Structure formats: C-alpha cells, structure tokens
Amino acid sequence: MKTKIVKQYTTSLDTKRRVTIREAAFNHYNVKIYNNGKVMLSPRIMMDPNTISKNTFKTIESSMKNFKEGKVSDPIKLNEFDWDGEE
C-alpha cells in the first residue's frame, strides 16, 4: 500500500525553535530525527488507560503470553509498504 502526499509546504523554526504544522489532524506526534536531518512525525492518539475494557486487557495479556511462549504467526513482509511517503 503506497502512501500518498496530500500536503507539502516549506516551514521554518520560530524564535523558540518550534515548527508549526498547518491544519494538523492530531494533537500528539511521535518525533524521529535522523542523522541526515530528516524529521519523521507519526500521529499518536493519547487516551486514558482506564477507558480500555477489561476484555481488551485480557486479550493483550493472552497475546503477550502466547508471544513469550513462541506461539506467533509467520513474519509480515514489511518491504511491501512505502514507509517514507516518496513516490
């Protein structure tokens, strides 16, 4: 599945060395800064852990138990995805 660039623009740092994201879809982002200067932002949705149902926690615990016991699926071929958004 190819990712598509929907908006591209040039920005600069303000006096406090911050960047403004125009019309940002999310309030929180994970930031990765690479040694070549590239910056990658990934959206993060922050939520109250108390809003996760007990059934979901039970499923997570069961999944982690299976993982630790080696009960896992075959590897996923991630090279089929375009991670950097370039065409």
Keywords, separated by commas or semicolons:
single chain; 87 residues; alpha+beta; two-stranded antiparallel sheet; 1 helix; 2 strands
Plain-language structure description:
- The protein is built from 1 helix and 2 strands.
- By secondary structure, the chain is α+β, with helices and mostly antiparallel strands.
- The mean pLDDT is 86.
What's the gist of this structure?
The chain has 87 residues and is of the alpha+beta class. The protein has 1 helix and 2 strands, in the order ββα.
Topology readout:
Elements: E1 28-33, E2 39-44, H1 54-68
Antiparallel strand pairs: 1-2
Number of strand elements: 2
| Count of runs of 4 or more consecutive helical residues | 1
Query: What would you report as the Rg, rounded to the nearest angstrom?
Result: 19 Å
* H-E string: EEH
Major sheet size, sense and barrel closure: 2 strands, antiparallel
Separation, N- and C-terminal Cα atoms: 12 Å
Percent helix: 10-25%
- Write down the overall mean pLDDT: 86
Shape: extended
How much of the residues is beta strand, in percent? Answer: 5-15%
Provide the low-confidence segments as ranges: none
Tell me the strand order in the biggest sheet: 1-2
- The helix/strand class is alpha+beta
